[in-house]
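ERR on first pass: missing label on line 2. Operator R.T. fixed the label and resubmitted. Corrected input:
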Amino acid sequence: MSADLLLDCRGMLCPRPIIELGKHLAEVPVGGVIAVASDDVAAAVDVPAWARMREQEYLGAEPAEDGVPVYSVRRVS
Amino acid sequence: MTTYLDSASGEPLHPAAKTVLEQATEHGYADPRRLHGPARNARIMLDNAREATAQALGVRPDEVTFTPSGTHAVHLGVLGLLAGHARSGSLLAASAVEHASVMHAGRWHEARGGSFATLAVDPLGRVTEEPPAGTTVVAVQAANHEVGTVQPVASYGESAPLFLDACASAGRLPLPEGWAAAAASAHKWGGPAGVGVLLVRKGARWRNPFPGDDRVDERATGMENVAGALAAAAALQAMVAEQEDLAARQHALVDRLRAGVATIPDTDVVGDPDVRLPHLLTCSFLYVDGEAIVGELDRRGFSVASGSACTASALEPSHVLAAMGALTHGNVRISLGRETTADDVDRLLAALPDVVAGIREEAGL
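pass 2 clean. output:
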């Protein structure tokens, strides 16, 4: 999945990766995709939960080349 | 002054238990198995504790065993049912939101060649998945210890022998029917710590999964905590006597809390709003660090728990919140004691928006 904006949050603990998503969502156009690479276990739950609460569309996770999951969210509003 | 809002971790000793604990500690020191006077005193106290506990929970006295903790009662209950049914299989199925003690028992069982499956829950935390075919024992809690949701226990006892973890609900809600074994924990109802209760239904196939002991009660290990058990029973009786009033009052206070925290922006209020434990509420604040909010509330005099990874003993976010798809960071669990007042709740609600906004501001949001 190609993202309009990819945030590298490797090594950061929750809620930091989610804070980065919140800070940078506005930089992606409506309909665009923001993604975050995070090796924090809480991100697997908290990225979809963030998308639900902020009424954005969670698209899923795919591993990056180094195996770290990259979570993608489509900006819908 | 501290406003203690963590009774789900440990309820303060019930006044009804205080004198009992003191006196029973003084007089109940002997080994109840012996044949002399002091032993007979201890035996009478232990029998009274068993009788009173059975009556309060609506079970038979010979179904009650006192254990050194609720956790140990859970381990004995889960693994003992599996041992009793070992000939028909070895598959344990448990809801994905069971207490860590059930999960640890499941992994222990798995490490010894058994199988362990978890059953999915809905976003309110209610178990919805059917146990797989061939399930030997199914474990479902009466109500969830973190989010309060009451489980549809009755339907699960039909498919396989049911282990019921009643640690979060005992004394607060009536014990559901349909279990083969169950567990409860005294310090969660205002008894002393160090007293758990294992219930095994008359006729249920239960076998000691551990080395066992030579007590009068075949399910007990080591000398009973006689004074603790008697004080626990006194607290439980008192809690059950005031159950309806207390539950109604606490339920209304938690309604008020739920409505209040829901007005804070970007807050995930978790668990079933109605069919729940009367005394607890869990919510997660987006972009908020769990350790920071627990620390800031503590600084302001409020003691609350958290299931966020940075505050949890396991360094992983709460498996309960994760199974529900609830936000795991910025999490607090607020649980009311029997003396918590509307004023306590209102002061917390007055403080929270400021605490949350302050932490978000520091994070740059």
